[in-house]
Amino acid sequence: MKERDLANTAESLCPRSISEEDRARAQIYQLLGTLLSNPPSSELLKGLATLKGDDTLIGSASKNLAALAQRTSATDAEREYNNLFVGLGRGELLPYASYYLTGFLNEKPLANLRSDLMARGIRARADVKEPEDHMGTLCETMAGIITGEFECDSDLPSQKAFFDAHMAKWARLFFTDLEQAQSAIFYAPVGSLGKAFMAVEADAFAIQ
What we know:
Blueprint: H1 20-37, H2 42-48, H3 57-70, H4 74-85, H5 97-102, H6 108-120, H7 135-147, H8 156-166, H9 171-180, H10 187-206
């Protein structure tokens, strides 16, 4: 799939002028963040059903996501989301950096992230109840850094520093787990999309 195909599904605010490539990257981060932070609405499912794809890993995942969005109701998506991330006591997956990197919640990765966010002048929204090291929040933060939504530097070195510090060590593993989760039907291609996209991001940042 051409990354620009996500433009109508997860449009990002862009306070600064950015390239088409960066806009597409921000839109994918924003889409992943939206889908991981809350179950998709009927409107979002309709938008996802129009996604196109090609033979790349990202394109293939997008085509699968579109097909599943077309036949998934918002009620079914919410039930699946709750089974994956909420559950009775806990969901099938715990999408937090602390858990993936230490085996426990609210550990040093969260403290390090909070220090970095404070240094960058980024504050969590008042309506966000999850710890900041939730993968959905991290994806939305990356989108905001790329588009210049925050006061901090938004150039490539700043993006790379945030990705390397808070996402590189566990993002692909998390999205692989999501792709293979027992409860995942609609969310399986979300995992595939995230896994493929994080690999592209990691490779691109590695040569900077």
